[in-house]
């Protein structure tokens, strides 16, 4: 088992910065990435105590400093929940059964719910989009719209699972986990080189720094991105 911590627009060993791309960029299946719902901020150094979140635009502004697209759902009243940001429709309540990855895929493919039969396993990114990171472990780290969720692993495509205990991602090639099915256009990666040192993700319309300046500490990375001037953005 390999444990992987991931976040949207995450800073890892090397740094990439992002901003919102102009709305003139059109894509048939673009959507908004929901916020993590993280409202807390922390010191950059041990013991990482909680601090008052710096204001947006502050050199040390963190995830908790920004609320762009809050988590937003609609209960469709037929056993399904619609994500108002991504446009995906989710199975509202899982059936409390664990399955192998192959059986989970078959379960979703055969599911008939809400007058639809085009259900499927979610991708890792899709399932992570409904994790509510404002809820601390042991969770379940998900909105109350989603009933019966266990603080445990749920299958995604490509032998990965999202753990609704803490929102982390795990890699498995075997074992049994829970499943929550989804329907809607599957997220595909498609990028556009803007020719000015930036790349646009056509799914989300986020604009990314094309290169990276090398490794740095987390607090330095926050300041770097907040102060970056690139492509007149």
UniProtKB/TrEMBL annotation:
Residues 79-183 form the Lcl C-terminal domain. InterPro entries: Lcl_C (IPR011460). It holds the Pfam family Lcl_C. Residues 1-21 form the signal peptide. Keywords: Signal. It comes from the Bacteria. This is Lcl C-terminal domain-containing protein. It comes from Syntrophus gentianae.
């Amino acid at each position: 088992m390999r444990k992987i911590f991931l976040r949207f627009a995450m800073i890892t060993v090397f740094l990439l910065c992002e901003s919102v791309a102009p709305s003139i960029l059109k894509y048939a299946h673009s959507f908004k990435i929901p916020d993590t719902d993280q409202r807390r901020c922390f010191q950059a150094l041990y013991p990482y105590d909680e601090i008052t979140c710096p204001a947006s635009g502050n050199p040390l502004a963190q995830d908790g400093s920004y609320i762009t697209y809050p988590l937003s759902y609609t209960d469709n009243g037929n056993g399904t929940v619609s994500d108002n940001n991504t446009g995906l429709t989710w199975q509202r309540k899982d059936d409390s059964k664990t399955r192998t990855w192959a059986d989970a895929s078959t379960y979703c493919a055969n599911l008939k719910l809400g007058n639809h039969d085009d259900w499927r396993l979610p991708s890792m990114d899709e399932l992570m989009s409904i994790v509510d990171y404002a809820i601390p472990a042991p969770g379940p780290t998900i909105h109350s719209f989603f009933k019966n969720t266990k603080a445990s692993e749920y299958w995604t495509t490509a032998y990965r699972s999202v753990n609704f205990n803490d929102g982390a991602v795990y890699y498995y090639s075997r074992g049994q986990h829970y499943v929550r099915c989804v329907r809607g256009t599957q997220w595909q990666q498609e990028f556009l080189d803007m020719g000015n040192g930036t790349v646009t993700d056509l799914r989300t319309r986020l604009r990314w720094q094309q290169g990276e300046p090398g490794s740095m500490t987390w607090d330095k990375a926050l300041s770097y991105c907040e102060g970056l001037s690139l492509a007149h953005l």
